[in-house]
Amino acid sequence: MIRPILVALCAATAVQAQSFEGAISMQFSDGKARAIEMAYMVKDGKVRMEMPGGRGDGAGTFIMDAAARKMLIIMPAQKMYIEQSYAGLAVGAGAATSKGKPPTITPTGRKETIAGYSCEHYTVAEEGNPPTDVCIARGLGAFVLPSAGGRGPGRANSPWERGLGEDGFPLKVQTGDKVEMLVTSIEKKPLDAALFAPPADYSKMDMGAMLRGRPPR
Fold it and tell me: Which of the four CATH numbers 2.60.40.60, 2.50.20.10, 3.40.50.200, 3.90.180.10 does domain 5-211 have?
């Protein structure tokens, strides 16, 4: 099983400063000889991620807003969305691990062109984990992903994610002979601002009411 790539929100404070606008397609390995596709869109410091939900209803759509420091989870089947704050997020290059030790980031001197963009290979190592080779591009903004498991943004579990810095975007992540993540296309183009907000006819889910046992308004 792939190490927890989809469990991190890395360097989100830098997203608002980046200038790239467009769409990025990427694949993640699930360790079962098949790839999980993800659409990744960037505009004005906001990121929209669309991951397969398996029901054909657009499930798995997230919107990250660095300036507002919040994440929206879009639920088309219910025509609702959830809003989560990540005000306490700790980000940046070399962020400490749960043991208080940052990963070791070593440039290899190797470069590669992936999806038309140049990236530089780094070896990321942390005690207790095998080294990971990450090919990092600059100029695409910071790399952000929603946290999984209901724990909210800010959990940077993978050493390579903690080592990206404030303007590092991975185009390829490989551990041993297994490619865990690969960017397949990058298209710089204007995007509709409506993609980065919940649809006007969607209702915001009242999480407090749900916890109190009342239906959302």
Answer: 2.50.20.10
Joined tokens for residue 50: 């669309």
Distances, alpha carbon 124 to alpha carbons 133, 159, 181, in Å = 6, 7, 15
Phi, psi angle pair for 55, to nearest 5°? -120, 0
CB-neighbour burial class of residue 122 (10 A; exposed 0-12, middle 13-18, buried 19+):
buried
Which carries the bigger pLDDT value, residue 110 or residue 95? 110
One-character DSSP codes across 64-83: EETTTTEEEEEETTTTEEEE
pLDDT tens for 99-128 read 556 778 889 999 999 999 999 999 988 788
In DSSP terms, 81 is beta-bridged to: 74, 204
- The full set of domain ranges for the chain reads 5-211
